Fold this sequence. Notes:
Number of helices: 11
Oligomer: single chain
Organism: Pelagibacterium lentulum
Helix content: 40-55%
Protein name: Phage head morphogenesis domain-containing protein
Largest sheet: 3 strands, antiparallel
Distance between the termini: 16 Å
Amino acid sequence: MARRPTRAQLRRQIRAIIDEFDPQAQAAFMDSVNEITSGIALAALVEALRARDVEAAVRALNIDGAAFTPLRRALEQAYYAGGAGTVAAMPTLRTVSGQQIALRFDVAFPRAEHRIRDLAGGFITRMTEEMRGLARTVIADGYALGRGPNTIAYDLAGRINRATGRRSGGILGLSGPQYEYVRTMREALANGPGIFRRPNGDPVFWIKRDGTLGTTLTRRDHRFDGTIIKAIREGKPVPADMVSRITGRYSDRLLLTRAEVVARTEVGEAVMASKREAFIQGLEKTGYTEQAVTRRWKHSGRRGKHARDQHIAMNNVEVKGLSEPYTLPDGTRMMHPLDSSLGAGPDQIVSCACDEEILLDFSEGVT
């Protein structure tokens, strides 16, 4: 009987692969967003905004899935590394008749190619659609607030940073909720940070007992806190040019957060999917059936506000074979942690750090 691999060793190796490709995917996401913002036809954008032609304005942004090629490549590399790493950690495999086999992860196998194409392509499609939708929201908000065409254009595209030569401070690349944070900050600063309140009556900014600035907008650039505190004490709005600087820096920081979340989530799903594909290829080559496989959900061990009760409940839950999905307490079905192929939403997959043990019993399922 083949010696089993150390389960903890394989889990550590998979986590190391995810950690290795996280920074690459983050940088690729930022490069992709920069590719889009640097390709904006600014003059055409302003002209369309002046004519109040929203769709022409969106077209002038030149949002194209091809801009995300760097991220696609990073996910493909992570997928291959996950599959190859899984195979490397497997025991010596033998066929039902006892013949030793050499298993190599075949990333060119049609099923494997189709899976990573779906993973990367699906994300890119969702991302470009989201960017166009958010652009329409920003334009509508700009018109409603009486902002001029040039101002709305810079809200979308950002301004050229002389130090980097790249555009910064725009909203393209942010999620919908992140844009709402930026809008909340802008409205509060422009209307008096100590006066403007959220719909529930809570202030956006306040001065704490120790004299420091209080706010839930924690990703702000703290170098501007003194300016905001001064405005609160004077009961005045922050000057318009300073509002643009403060919100622009806040937007940049939120974009970095988005890159981190996207990388952790998309790389994680790619690696977990390739781990599953590696085991499928192993079974197909040995001649054993899926009855030789038991899969076990392993919770990351997180506790506190970042823990998901659903995933804690799934810890050590087992399913048989490689085709049976896990069913979470709320009815969500997933083939493995981070899997979105069966319709799991962001609430189940974003930044998830759970793993899956795949156990092989060579005394069962012999064909």
